[in-house]
Amino acid sequence: DLAKIDAVTNCRYGAGTVLVFAYDKEAAWKNEHEETVLCSGVQDETLFAPQVMLQATELGVATTWVMDLKYGALKESLGLPDQEEIVMIMPVGYAADDCQPAPLHTMRKTLDEIVTYR
Q1: Separation CA 81–CA 35 (nearest Å)
Q2: 3-class DSSP string for the chain
Q3: Mean pLDDT value across residues 18-29
Q4: What local confidence, expressed as pLDDT, does residue 71 receive?
Q5: Lower Cβ count inside 10 Å, N or C end of the chain?
Q6: Which residues pair with 15 in a beta bridge?
Q7: d(Cα 100, Cα 63) in Å, to the nearest integer?
Q8: Average model confidence (pLDDT) for the chain?
Q9: Is residue 14 within 8 Å of 84, Cβ to Cβ?
Q10: pTM for the whole structure
């Protein structure tokens, strides 16, 4: 139901299909060798999503990665169990002929602003 998506984000962009990327916290691999247990769920989803985007592009369909949403509200409205965590949504559809990236998508920082070394 796209109304559930529209209730949690302004970033559906008119797409008729929206994929929800989530992982099961109980099933995801965990690195328990450190004081803070790290779960691979987010990394797994962020590795999978670009593959979906590339395949969609190959099929002539546009996508975008959206994290600007109310995660808890979407999880509740979809009836996801407690152990499921949403990572992102991905609207899928055909881009308008005049579609352009948002201005922030073309702004870049210099390497000095993002890289440190010792």
Answers
A1: 27
A2: CHHHHHCCCCCCCCCCEEEEEEEECCCCCEECCCCCCEECHHHHHHHHHHHHHHHHHHCCCEECCECCCCHHHHHHHHCCCCCEEEEEEEEEECCCCCCCCCHHHHCCCCHHHHCCCC
A3: 91
A4: 96
A5: C
A6: none
A7: 13
A8: 91
A9: no
A10: 0.83
Q: Is the pLDDT of residue 53 over 80?
A: yes
Cβ contacts of 86 within 8 Å, gap of 6 or more: 20, 21, 22, 71, 74, 75, 80
Dist. CA 46–CA 113, nearest whole Å: 24
Please compute Rg for the chain using Cα positions. Answer: 17
Phi, psi of 79 (to 5 degrees): 70, 30
Q: What is the mean pLDDT of residues 69-87?
A: 96
Contact 102, 58 (CB under 8 A): no
Residue 13 backbone class (left: φ over 0; alpha: ψ -120 to 50; beta: rest): left
